[in-house]
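Researcher: I'm preparing a figure for a lab meeting and need a structural model of a single chain. I don't have an experimental structure, so a prediction will have to do for now. The sequence is pasted below. Please return the structure as tokens so I can convert it later.
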Amino acid sequence: MEKTSLKTCIRLVWLLALYSLAAAQSWEIAGTMPVPVAAGRTFSLDGRIYILGGQTDAAGSPSDLVQIYDPARNLWLTEARLPEGRSGFAAALHGAELLMTGGLTATMDQARRLQGWDRASWRTLREHPWFDRVDGQAVVLGERLILLGGYPVPFSSFAAAAPFIAEYDLGNNSFMYADSTAFPGEAPYQQMAALWSGQIYLFGGVQFGVSSRTWRYDPADHTLVRTLPNLLQPRAGGEAVAASTGDIYLIGGYNESRTALSSVEIIQLHSGFATTAAGPDLRYARRAPMAVEADGILYVFGGFDERGYIPAAIEKLTLRPNTGVQVEPGVACEFNLISAYPNPFNSRTVIAFSLDRPANAEVAIYTMTGARIKTLLAGQLTSGSHRVAWDGTDDQNRLLPSGLYFCRLTASGKVVTQKMTLVR
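Model: Understood. Here is the structure written out token by token.
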């Protein structure tokens, strides 16, 4: 009985935190796209946002444009080009190189190739029928490119029995794992995917109807399991963004009731449970949009509205609290904020982390609004594993109320954060 009550209380705390965040946020118009597209891909790197390919109209004409946006100056820069017009493809960053595969192209040879772009030139890494899929997802984890879902490209060599999950070793340039039976029943496509704590979460999708289910794939043991709760509404063809705040934003998409959605869901994942709450609605309904975070701001581009047109307006959302993961280039020290246990906690939690070499480090606690309230550790540390405890008090040793807090670890200019829930 006590466990049930505590779990219910914890869920309520998280939901209240989510709803308060959603209430404080609203989407703003940041500008317009020079060439509005849908069903492309986007990524952020070195202060620039890159929008690759997509469809320029509902007829499905694939674009070969790479549109480059400077969000700080709200300025569009010189365009680049894809090897060929492409939409509905999968893409992921591997370091500073973008990897792209699958999708709809004018010639099917391009769709079955794994191609890389270093923002100067394109190269082909490998050609294989397993790359030849539409509306699938790609995630890079270390030296692995993990492909999930998608449907067969029409008139191509991609067989219906091709694997739902395929893991590609980027070091050896070969497939290392594949499974076509992991997903129970008919596997959906147009799912939304996000990487969180070394695991890949798949949301919604469509196959004989639009789904509201959530799945978790663990690359360590190749297991795919269903997780709860369901999404607030069925959703496919949207965009999932794993934000620096630790939240996952599901943006837009469609379902049987609406051909394009303006709704947003905010998901917070934990080791024992997840919480889902409605985020602020977009100003425009968008199916197959492109979304990315840059410097603590979410940007949404393109997508089809309910009439099949592509809005030119760019929407942006400032994330709160603004204490997410930050990585500075050229950092000498590498480290991991391993865990805070227990989390949620009542009176005491232990934060564990590791350094790969000696460094000047600081561990501090912040509120949801970004205010520093407690410094747990500051000074020169040796390499290896470290642990520090927090008893739920501020710098004046006053007990803090229940709620959401952030532990921030800083070393050699690099910052990572860990969310923690205090339950009194």
